[in-house]
Amino acid sequence: MTGGAGIPEGVDAGGDAACWLGLLCPDCGAVREPATAAECWRCGAALPRDRDSP
Length: 54
Ligand SMILES: [Zn+2]
Fold this sequence. Notes:
binds zinc ion, elongated, 0% strand, little secondary structure
């Protein structure tokens, strides 16, 4: 594996919308924070963890 692939230095997360789809609350659309949160910080909805951490 090569490091540094995907996100150029100096670019904040949010460039690729598709990457955010899995981080959005299905109920209210809030961005999951932190990304590993088990429930929405805004509405408290349970967030599915369908993406394993690398
Ligand atoms: Zn929510």
